[in-house]
Amino acid sequence: MTTTPDTTAATQTKTLLRFATAGSVDDGKSTLVGRLLHDAKAILADQLEAVTRTSEERGFVGGEFDFALLTDGLRAEREQGITIDVAYRYFATDKRSFILADCPGHVQYTRNMVTGATTADAVVVLIDARTGATEQTRRHLTVVHRLGIGHVILAINKIDLLDYDQVAYAKVKAEIEALTAEIGLDSAHLIPVSALAGDNVAEASANTPWYQGPALLELLENLPSKEEDTADLEPFRLDVQSVLRPQGGLAPGLDPDEFRDYRAVTGQVTSGRIRLGDEIDVHPAGLRTTVVGIDTADGPLESAGAPLSVALRLADDIDTARGSVLAAAGSLPEPRKALRADVFPFTSDGLSSGDRVLVKAGTSTVKAIVTIESKHNLLTSGSEPAEVLAGNDIGTAEVRLATALPIADFREHGRAGGFLIIDPQTGSTVAAGIHTPEDDQP
Prior knowledge:
Blueprint: H1 6-9, E1 15-23, H2 29-39, H3 45-57, H4 75-80, E2 87-92, E3 96-102, H5 110-118, E4 122-128, H6 135-147, E5 151-157, H7 166-183, E6 189-192, H8 216-222, H9 226-230, E7 237-239, E8 242-244, H10 256-260, E9 264-271, E10 273-275, E11 279-283, E12 287-296, E13 299-300, E14 303-305, E15 309-314, E16 325-328, E17 336-345, E18 351-352, E19 356-361, E20 364-377, E21 382-385, E22 388-389, E23 395-405, H11 410-413, E24 418-422, E25 429-435
Parallel strand pairs: 1-3, 1-4, 4-5, 5-6
Antiparallel strand pairs: 2-3, 7-9, 7-16, 8-9, 9-15, 10-14, 11-12, 11-16, 12-13, 12-15, 17-23, 17-25, 18-22, 19-20, 19-24, 20-21, 20-23, 24-25
Helix pairs in contact: 5-6
C-alpha cells in the first residue's frame, strides 16, 4: 500500500466524515465515543477535569473516569445514566475531521436515531458481545438499511468481559453476519472492541491477536465520505429560500449600475456544484436559463458546491419564489403528486391511512393525504399489510400531494429525496419520509 509523503499531506485540506453511533441501551455507545474522543486527544483540559470530578462522585477511583460523560451533554441524562437525545461532537485527527452523532438506545427514541443517521456517511452500531443482537439492534440495522447508509460498522463491544476469547467472539460474529445478510447489509465491517478498556478503538489491541482488521478510528479515517464520493459527481440542486432585490447598500463586488437591476435567487446548494455559465432548469416555471453570477457575503465566486449558501443571478427574468427548485439542466426529477416512501413516525400517535397532513420537501410545503401500505416486521425482516404505523414502527406509505413536487430518489440523492410530514393543526413534525420511487406514478 502506498503512502502520501508528509510534505504533501500537510498541504491538503482534511476531508470530513459524518458518522453516527447507535445500539441498545447499555451497549456502551456513549462510552465508546467518549473513549474515541479521549484517545484522539479531542478533549479540552477543563472538560476532562469536570468529567473526572463527576466520575469521582459516581464512585470511579484510581484516576479512572466515566467516558460516557464526554458525550452525554444533558444534566438529566447524566443523573439517569442514559442518553435520551442525539449528542453531536466535532473532532479531528491528523488525517481527517469528524462530526459524530451519539444516538439514544431506548426503543422510544428510535426517531432520534433516524435524525442522527440521515446525514451520516457511516453508522457505528454497538452490540454487547455477551448478549448478541437484540430487537433494538434489528431496528437500528433496518433503519440503516432503509436509509441506504454507505458504510456500516458493527462494533462487538465488551470483548474484555469475554476474556478476549476468540471462540466466543466467533460465535457472536456468526450470529451478526447472519442477521446482516437477512436484512440486506452485505458489506458491514465487524470489529471486536472494548469501549471501557480501549481495545481496538483508537489502536489495534494486543489482547486480540486473532483479529487482523483495522481499529475503529483507523477505519473511520480511511472510509470514503459523501464529500469525496459525490462533491463533483452529483447534479447541482438548490431549493430557493427567497429572491433578492435591492434594499439599500451595495452587494459585494457589484458596481452601482449593476446593483440597480440586481436580482438573485438565494438558497443552500443541496447537492453538486454550480459554475458560471452552467445551464439550469427551474421548477415550477418549467424553463431553462443560464447562471451569470454567483454571489456570497464574501463576494462573487466562479463556482460553488454543496453545502454553501449562495445568491444566483440568472440570465433570464424567470418567475421564482420560495419553494422553487433550481437543478442542473436535464437532471430535475419528474414532478409528481404521488410518492411511495419509507416512513418513520416521530410521535406516539403515529400515522394512519387517511391522515391529512402537510409535506415539507426542501423549501416547499404542500397539503397531502397519507395511505399506509405496510409495516416492517423486525422479527422476520419482512413486511406485513398495515393501516397504522405506531411511534416506533417503520413502514411504507403512499403520499398524495396537492401540488406536484420534483422529489428525488433518496437512495441516489440523499437530502433531495427526504421530506417531513407535519400536523397541519399543531405544526408539529409527525414523521420523516424518504422517497423510494420503485412503484411511483407521475
